[in-house]
Request: fold
Amino acid sequence: MRVDRLADGLWRWTAPHPHRSPERAAEDDLPAAAGSLYVEGDDAVVLVDPLAPADGTPAARRFWEALDADVARTGLPVHVVLTSGRHARSADRVAARYRGACIWAPADAVGPIEAAVDRRFGDGHALPAGLVAFSPGVEGVWESLLLLPRH
Reply:
């Protein structure tokens, strides 16, 4: 897992892609790592496409300790925003850990979403922490885009 501070209240982390097969890496069209974001706003802490380390590992302990500390420090509600139905990743684990956490997903998500989605968003929708969602409107692109005006 790699963690990078991009700005105050904005962090990005990457971890091995959960759907990429090491045995088929040469044929796989998936990237080696999947990226996630931590966005701290005035009204919420938002995790975008979160991928938490496997439970019981030292990386998981460090991850949850850091996130718990940030959530406690801010006192803000936690929201999870999925940019695609395929990015459920650790959304349910985050929501279970932070009672009352809300999981958002694109209204036009392709296929089933493997998370307990609470709310849907569409093009131009204002999300917690000041994020704004956009549908790319391009054939074959299945991820929503997020604008972070503050950053």
Observations:
- The chain has a mean pLDDT of 87.
- Helices lie at 58-74, 91-97.
- The longest helix spans residues 58-74.
- DSSP finds two helices and nine strands in the chain.
